[in-house]
Amino acid sequence: MAKSALLKSSIGKKYWMALTGLFLCLFLVGHLAGNLQLLMPNSQLQFNQYALFMTSNPAVKILSYLTYISILFHAIDGILLTIQNKKARPVAYAKSNPSANSSFASRNMAVLGTLVLVFLATHMTNFWAKMHFDKSMPLMTQTIEAAPGMKSEYYVGRSVGQYYQVDQVKLPGDKEAEAGTPPKQLEVKNGTDVYNVQANVKVGELYKDLHKITFDFFKSKNKLFGVIPNEGLLFTIFYVLSMLVLAYHLWHGFQSAFQTLGLNSPKWTPTIKFLGKAFAVLVPLLFAIIPLYIHFTK
Amino acid sequence: MSAAKNINITLKIWRQKNAKTKGGIETYKLDNVSTASSFLEMLDQLNEQLVNDRKEPVAFDHDCREGICGSCSLYINGRAHGPDIGITTCQLHMRMFNDGDTIFVEPWRSKAFPVIKDLVVDRTAFDRIQQAGGFVSVNTSGNTIDANSLPVPKDDADKAFMAAACIGCGACVASCKNGSAMLFVGAKVSQYALLPQGKVEATERVLNMVRQMDEEGFGNCTNTGACEIECPKGISLENIARMNREYLKASL
Ligand code: HEM
Ligand code: SF4
Ligand code: FES
Q: What ipTM does this complex have?
């Protein structure tokens, strides 16, 4: 009995490449839709609430773990395939004319993918890691008018996860404040409700300010590594170039995944190819507009 | 067609004594090549010149010289079977070249196709893939049923015939940047998968042929499409897609 090898065989590996690749295309659409909120005026609260939702909703959590696994699997599988492919031709041609029969993108998927991986690593350090682990992430407060004319003055420390002196405010679990003694140090989490101590009513919410982090990042006038001036401009250029790389990866990758999955027919393939190219242009372009907009306006 | 003329060319040809030795590119000048001659006739002319000069002639594979056997495996100026599409090397003519041209001639480059001598490579890896499943088992003890007694839809018959046009030349492997044999194997899997006679052993066939293909050390397709363009028989990428479907079906 012949054995199938859905993990080890060439075709098995290719199936995983295509499935993870297409899943990542779906992820791109979702991520883009969220990020485009940054282009709307006065989007700070909305964006930060969205960011909170994306890090706390259980369904989103499952999707995000699937995304991490897909990226890892896609990258490792892609590198393994590429190593095998290099081994399959130990002696190179003295003269080759590859552009006569194939496109640039199709021949450079591994290089393009690796560049995307480098981008992902820096991008996740700059935003994802901050959002998840940075204890000194700035906060924004959303003030609610708890009762008509009620003055809702309170003070909360500017950092997350640390204990801060809180004045006139009660946070959930704040036993001392409930007992009437002046509140001392409290842990602030993303989305924490803020209470007015005297009236014991909710007067606001605290959010991790990812919106500010993003705008500061692309507008930063600091020196990169302490030497190269105007790092905000450099980040913007880096992001735009990375989206160009992604565009090339998708230019070939999108339709290629359908071919790999065995979906090739004279009836549908021209449409899939067209959609793939439209996707490869539109999605990275819209992503790239965001840093450009932030850096060059206001 | 314009009248034939004679051209002078420079050839840069891979010379390698045997599988064990290291080879290298040698340069030869060849004058008075008729543009009406085929590429292989031009090589014959070169070999005559080499023999007259008491030098070792260039070894290259050829047999039918009419695009049927698939043995004339030459990588010419960076392309399998040279600068034209839908042809084998024996069907390539010197009218595709100009006076004063420098022409590179190399063997197929693939781990699974080791060089035997000069431009001749060992393509028995393809035979082993074929032997792993590229057949239909029939009882030949006197009661073999005529193949045409089974009705086959015209569309399937056409597609199977198109897949069966593969001559096993290896141009797909040679022109693929990944050294992948998936166009060849896709064609061989398809030609049986499409016909009722082939369906019986379809599961075993695709699993065995793909396993053998991987064992031989061929690379993995990234759908660049180079094979489809360089294939002398116009075998379509649809055959790779069909093989992938067959493989998934056989695996589940
Ligand atoms: C958001 C990120 C990414 C998306 C949306 C994406 C999407 C895709 C798609 C759809 C394919 C086509 C699959 C196929 O031909 O069957 C592909 C292929 C490929 N990707 Fe990615 N990719 C991404 C990131 C990466 C990364 C980080 C690497 C890292 C090395 C990578 C390496 C590759 C390679 C080597 C291939 C060609 C593999 C083959 O065709 O066998 N990709 N990608
Ligand atoms: S698929 Fe085409 S290029 Fe490949 S071996 Fe068959 S005939 Fe030659
Ligand atoms: S010699 Fe037979 S195909 Fe060229």
A: 0.93
- Domain extent, residue B45, equals 6-116
Q: State whether A101 and B251 contact (CB < 8 Å).
A: no
Chain B residues inside the 8 Å CB shell of A102: 177, 224-226, 229
Residues B107, B128 within the same domain: no
Q: Which residues contact B49 (CB under 8 A, 6 or more apart)?
A: B28, B30
Question: Which residues are CB-contacts of A251 (< 8 A; sequence separation ≥ 6)?
Answer: A103, A105, A276, A277, A280, A281
Separation of alpha carbons B128 and B122, rounded Å: 12
Number of domains chain B is built from: 2
Do B128 and B48 fall into the same domain? no
pTM of the predicted model as reported, rounded to 2 decimal places = 0.90
What's the CATH code of the domain at B87?
3.10.20.30
Contact A88 B112 (CB under 8 A): yes
Asked if B182 and B205 sit in the same domain, the reply is yes
Per-residue pLDDT of chain A (298 residues; tens, 9 = 90+): 345 578 889 999 999 999 999 999 999 999 999 999 999 998 999 999 999 999 989 999 999 999 999 999 999 999 999 999 999 999 999 999 999 999 999 999 999 999 999 999 999 999 999 888 877 777 777 777 766 666 555 544 433 433 344 444 445 555 554 444 444 455 567 777 776 655 666 777 778 889 999 999 999 988 888 888 889 999 999 999 999 999 999 999 999 999 999 999 999 999 999 999 999 999 999 999 999 999 998 6
Domain membership flag for residue B216: yes
- For residues B252 and B250, what is the distance between their CA atoms, to the nearest angstrom? 6
In a domain, B238, yes or no: yes
Tokens of B149: 């007694």
